[in-house]
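User: Structure please.
Assistant: Input sequence and predicted structure:
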Amino acid sequence: MSFQYLGQEVDANTEFETVIGLEVHVQLATDSKIFSKAKSRLLEGDSVSEESVNANTTEICAGHPGTLPSLNKKAVEYAIKAGLATNCKINLKSIFSRKHYFYADLPKGYQISQFDLPVCEHGSLEVELGENGAISKKIGITRIHMEEDAGKSVHLSGFSLINLNRAGTPLVEVVSEPDMRTPEEAGAYLRKLYAIVTCIGVCDGNLQEGNFRCDANVSVRPKGSTKLGTRTETKNVNSFRFVEKAIEYEMERQRQVILSGGKIIQETRLYDSQKNQTFSMRTKEEAEDYRYFPDPDLPPLIIEQSQVDILRASLPELPDQKRDRFIAQFGLTKYDATMITAGKSLAQFFETTVLGSADKNFSKIAANLLNGEAVRLLHEAGIEINESNFKPQHFSELAKMINDKLVSSTAAKQIIAILFSESTPEVGGVAGIVDREGLKQVNDLSALEPIIEKIILDNPKQAEEFRSGKEKIIGFFVGQAMKATQGKANPGMLQDLVIKKLKE
């Protein structure tokens, strides 16, 4: 059975293409809110009680009649820096508008945002895709506009509560072009944008607190079609992996709806990470539904070109620049350098770890340690490396011990897990852990020879296969020997010795 969709004949064998555009809300790391002097975040030295419900709220945040907004200069500077770092054109004149909709956590009945004339437009990001980041793709950025956040509704049984601490928190919304075609591309774009805004210091980047969250617009169409299908918007996803999984689910859901003869409804959806599925929240509004018009309380925002030039000169080394320097200076692969520079704190940690060393092999080992077991543990805990028990001197010591063949990569994983869990490792640092846990690598041939000889004797069939030309089976013997030595044997020495003994 076939039918028409977007002007093309489709059936169960039709290959579909996904069209993805992302809207990312980036919370600006200003001390105060965008239009009032209320604190926008908990500052160093604040007590927990100062973060209590509605504590960081003024009459402006609560939308009291007669109050007037006053624009935060620092928020404007941060928005411009975000635009410069993403190759945007900076509009020297931009307009604030009122975006009207009613919801309990929006006390004014409208949100102050920017509509037809935003502060930044026409930018782009280059993302790395494929194995080891070998493929590059440019993703367009339509606009970056400033706006205020809404409050937070807490829905309980039979009633709801409102916390206005977030109301008026400064945001920029980064709106991409619909240039992405796969969840992988969407994830790469988000990670690159996150690396940039945290690197230049305009966003704290706390994903758990919603400081960097994404709305994913997804539609599907028959491959080769130039028409766009009806899109859905999945709101407020604050995890890179969850965005990818939400897109995966939504693209397949839409394909199944189309093939069953159904119709895609333009709507807002939410993603349930427990069930790994999206579900309908409300039908999607269009721009005309919001009744945008210029805010009469805020004059046009006029920026001098000299101000833009000063902010451009103040930008730090950006992630792509840092990545290229790490490749040249430390001999890292493009993949390793991209991973290391994906977060500001990880990049700083790595540089401190390898500080003063000219040995590129040492730097590569340090990068592998961080990108492997260390990052896995950090992701599981949901924290940045500067919030963990890890210390650069410990990784420097561990990388040197691996480089000197004093510990194996298998033992290194155990050591990293211990460093992660112990806030104050015993005196002696990594060397103390190695001695305490008995993790020193075995480099003594006389200790390894009887172990290998016994393994060969116990496995005559596999030994004969090796001697008949099946050399790949060497991995079996090396694995058995590593198991017998509890991962302490020097792998290179072990392999050479196994081959020698099998050939005798």
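The two ends are 68 Å apart (CA to CA).
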